[in-house]
Design goal:
This protein has 175 residues and is mainly β. It has one helix at residues 65-72, and strands at 4-8, 15-22, 26-32, 35-42, 45-56, 60-61, 84-96, 99-108, 111-126, 132-143, 162-174.
Length: 175
């Protein structure tokens, strides 16, 4: 019987990104630079694992100071009143050898919704110091409007400024 293991995110070797369409013709990529999380597993077996994740809204970066300020404002994330985005899994089910389906509650701006994410297991390796590391690439899509991020503008031609669908991509290393 394998023993319980808690794997913590190694932020130095991890990244948390999102992608959203702008004017429906191009994609803006952003990231959170301050985040933490862990997976509770039965040793190296991740079937049925429990995962938790948090990102600090103030750490959002799209490489544009004005846009970052707007995203932190009450028009979007309202970082002053809702400083954290979080996810807690309710299911972590194996799809095949290297893939899992992860269901859980995502909380943004005081709204919690059930979402489903895909988790691709990257494998396991021991580093130079004897520490065992595992990697996951987690991806999915959410509707920003489901979480109260409803601001939008309309161009003079009638086009929307920001799409509803947000793609999530997390490359995470745990130890």
């Amino acid at each position: 019987m394998e023993s319980k293991k808690v794997w913590g995110i190694d932020p130095t070797h991890s990244e948390v990104q999102f992608k959203i369409k702008h004017l429906v013709i191009s994609t803006v990529t952003g990231q959170f630079t301050d985040f933490s999380g862990e997976i509770h597993s039965n040793g190296d077996n991740f079937e049925g694992a429990k995962a938790k994740f948090e990102a600090q809204i103030a750490s959002i970066s799209t490489n544009n100071t004005d846009r970052d300020g707007h995203l932190k404002s009450a028009d979007f994330f309202d970082a002053e009143n809702f400083p954290v985005l979080s996810f807690e899994s309710t299911e972590f089910n194996r799809v095949d050898d290297g893939s899992f389906e992860m269901k859980g509650k995502m909380s943004i701006r005081g709204v919690s919704k059930e979402i489903t994410l895909n988790a691709e297991y990257g494998g396991q390796m021991t580093d130079f110091y004897g520490n065992v590391k595992v990697g996951f690439e987690i991806s999915g899509k959410i509707s920003r409007k489901d979480f109260g991020l409803t601001w939008n503008g309309v161009t003079e031609a009638g086009g929307i400024v920001v799409s509803d669908e947000v793609k999530l991509l997390l490359n995470l290393q745990f130890s």
